[in-house]
Amino acid sequence: MADAATIAARYLASWNETDPERRRALLAALWTETGTYADPLMRGTGPEEIGRLVAAVQERFPGHRFVLAGRPDGHGEPPRGFVRFSWALGPEGGESLVEGTDVALLDGGRLAQVVGFLDKVPAGA
What we know:
Elements: H1 4-16, H2 20-30, E1 31-38, E2 43-45, H3 46-60, E3 64-75, E4 80-91, E5 98-107, E6 110-120
Parallel strand pairs: 1-6
Antiparallel strand pairs: 1-2, 3-4, 4-5, 5-6
Helix pairs in contact: 1-2, 2-3
C-alpha cells in the first residue's frame, strides 16, 4: 500500500492548489475515474466533479489552507487499503475554522472513495 503520509499529503495538496490546470492534473493522478468523495455538506464522483467541490471550498474560504493534523495511518494489502488522517483549514498561521477526519479507500494506490467527517464547522456553513 502507498505510504499513508504520502497519500494524505498529495490529497491535501490537491485541495490547496488554486491553479485550475495544476489542480486538475493532481486530481487526475490521485483519484480513480469513478472515485467518490462525500462529507456531511457535499459529495462528488470522479476527478472533474471533485475538482468543482475543491473550487467551491476555495471560493468559500479564500486564502485558507488545509494542513495535516496529527499523523496519518493506514492498513490493508495492495492493491487496496485504507488511509485515515485529520486536517485543519484556516488562514496561514492562524486558527483553523474547519477541522475534520477523512477515511480513504485506495485502489491501485489511487483514491477510490473518501468519506469525510467534520469535527469543527463554522456557523452557517
